[in-house]
User: Which sequence fits this backbone?
């Protein structure tokens, strides 16, 4: 299978676009992590939406690449790297495989940074839930908690009169 010059250019253009999208995704992920640390919820929501748009564009690029390969060789079961290895001249193969390798590295980087970001989110969520639990239990004279065996244990906290206390005023 020999690829035509315009097909090679189309594949190269799609690979370059995919690499660019991954770069933007990593940048947004870093900014979103910084916004979480700063507790800037509006920024987190906006950056999350932008990351979603990039994921959609990446999906479109991959679909377009599959269609390009399918129209060139009549089968979309092959990966881009396989088609490049078999259907390109040595110069084109070297140039395109360099892009493919850069994309592979970016994907690994995205996976690692995403795991790190999810850990930051999990830690932040744990802190918030812990604080809410403390506030809730401090406002309740009797707290009921299920233990690991399915029974309820109760804790009674002495409470001062609500009038005149800071918690009562809040």
Assistant:
């Amino acid at each position: 299978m020999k690829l035509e010059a315009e097909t090679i250019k189309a594949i190269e253009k799609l690979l370059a676009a995919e690499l660019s999208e991954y770069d933007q995704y990593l940048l947004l992920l870093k900014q979103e992590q910084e916004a979480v640390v700063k507790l800037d919820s509006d920024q987190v929501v906006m950056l999350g939406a932008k990351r979603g748009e990039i994921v959609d564009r990446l999906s479109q690029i991959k679909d377009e690449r599959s269609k390009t390969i399918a129209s060139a060789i009549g089968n979309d079961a092959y990966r881009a790297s396989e088609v490049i290895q078999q259907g390109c001249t040595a110069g084109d193969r070297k140039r395109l495989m360099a892009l493919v390798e850069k994309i592979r590295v970016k994907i690994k980087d995205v996976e690692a940074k995403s795991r790190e970001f999810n850990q930051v989110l999990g830690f932040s969520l744990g802190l918030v839930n812990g604080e809410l639990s403390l506030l809730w239990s401090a406002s309740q004279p009797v707290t009921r908690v299920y233990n690991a065996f399915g029974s309820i244990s109760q804790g009674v906290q002495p409470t001062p009169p609500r009038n005149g206390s800071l918690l009562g005023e809040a």
